[in-house]
Task: structure prediction
Amino acid sequence: MATTVLSTRWGRHLTTISRADLKVRILLIINLFGVYFSDILLLFQPEGLYNMSNRLHIQRSPMDAINRQSRTSVHFSINYAIASGWASDKAVNVDFQKALLGNGLEFSQTNTTPRSFTLSRTQPSHLQVKLESPAPQVSGIHIVSAPPAYDLEMFIHEASAATDAYQQTYRTGQYQVIRCAAKIQHLYSSQAHAFKYLWETRLGQSPEDFRCLGPRPVAGGGLRFVMPPHETAGQEPCSIELRIESLFREPRKLLVETGFVWPKPFLLPQGEKFDPAGRLTTLEQYATNEVWEFLTQAKDG
Result:
C-alpha cells in the first residue's frame, strides 16, 4: 500500500498514513469548513474570469454565498428639478456658498460655467453640490457623495443643509418641483465570482449556456430592471431602476444600484422645506429589504 510521510509543525515525530486515508481526511476537512471547490479552482485561473467548466461544489444557501453584513455604501445622491429660470451669477454664487458655510458645509473647490455652479470637497467625505439650468426655465440642484465616508444618516444631514442653503439664497416663496430622483449603490462580498452567483444560483442557469457565444471566458455581467411608476396606497408614485452586476475590478464584489424617480410635479409652499430625509430613507429601506430578498431568493431546481 502506498504511504505518505507527514511531519507536524508542532511535534518532532513523523506520522505515516496511507494515501487513501489522507484523501479521506482532506475531504472531511473540505466538508467541515464548507470550502467551495470552484473557489480553489479560481486560484489557478486569471483573476476576474468566470470559468464556464463544470464544477463540483458543496451546496450553500444564497445568504451564505452573499454576505449581508459586508454591505458597503459607495454612492448616495438626490436631485430636484425645479420650474424656474437660473443663470450663473458670481455675486449670487458667493451668497449660496456663504449660506452653505453657515449650514456647516465647507467646500475646497468650485467650478463655474454659464449654465452651472459646482462645489466639491474630498474631506471629511466626498461631497458635491451642483446648481444648473438643464433647459430653459428649468433649474436643478444635485447633491452627490461618491464614495461616502459616512452612513446615509450623515448624507441626509448634509443634503438637508444644501437644500436649506438653496432656499435661503433663492427666495422665490414657493417652489414648483418638476421631479425628484435619488440613487444608492451598495457593494456586497461574494464567496465566489459574483456573476457566477447571479447566473447559476439566483437565475438557475448553466455555465454551458455561454458556449454559443464562443470560447472566450466571461469577465462579468449583471441584471437591469426598470419598473414604471405604480400607484400604491399612502405612497407617492415613483419609478424604480435596479442594476445588479459583478464589479469588474473586484469580481467577488456585487454592485447593487437602486434608483427612485418621483415624476409627479408638486408645489412646495412658502416656509416648507425640501424633504431629502423621507425620500432617501424610503429608498434605503427598499434597497436593503425588497432588493436583498430578490437577490438572495435562489431559483429552485
Summary: The first strand starts at residue 3 and ends at 7. Residues 1-47, 52-60 have pLDDT under 50 and may be disordered.
